[in-house]
Structures are given as C-alpha cells and as structure tokens.
Amino acid sequence: MMTLQHHQKDAQPGYESPAWLSAPPMRYQDGYVWFLLFASLDIILTWYILRKGGTEVNPLAKLVIERWDLAGAIAFKFSIVLFVVVTCEIVGRHKDHVGRRLTGVAIAMSAFPVVWSLTLLALHGFLIHTQPQL
Description:
This protein has 134 residues and is an all-alpha fold. The protein is built from three helices and no strands.
C-alpha cells in the first residue's frame, strides 16, 4: 500500500508542509493533457451537434443529457476523466508500461468521438456557414 511521505523543507527550518503537498508528481502528464483536450472537444462537439438536431448515440450519456442537460454532460464526462487518470496513476505506479499503454488507449478512445463528430459535421455541412443564395 502506498502512503504519502511528509517532507520537511531544508531551506526553512521548522517549516512543515502539509502531507498532501508532498504527493509524487503525476506519471503521464503529457498524455493527460491530450486526454483532457479530446474529452473537452467531445463535449463541445456533442453539444453543437445536439443543438443542430443530432442525437446522442451513447445510451448512458443520452440519459444523463436528458435528465441534467449540459451541466450533467460535463459532470459525467469529467467524472470519467478523473476515474481514468486515477486508474492510470495507480496502475502506472505498479507497472509503468501498463500505465503508459492504458493512457495511450484512453487518448485514442477519447479522440475517436471527436474525429467522428467532425466527420459528421463536415458531411452534413455544419462546419461551413454560407449565406443563402437568392
């Protein structure tokens, strides 16, 4: 079982920092930035598509959106993001290569709906707004 170590600052005698500040750094920070970017884009594009008359295909996400609207969608998405990041950190501290691979899979899975949404928007002409011709 892992415990947080309490470190005392050498530069300031008698100074003790709270234990939570001495947590080890995150292992896959660069990957988490990409994961968070794609998760955010997924929410933005999903909301744009829904406002244009599209539908949510994920039944669980659809239920959340129907009950709690945009705030629920954001809370749902970022609770998943938090779960994945914590899982990657826990796994990575025991087996680095598995944690790194899990982070890569999370990024790919998060990027897929973004690419799909952009494809749908491009196919249906939602990306380019043209003035109606008279």
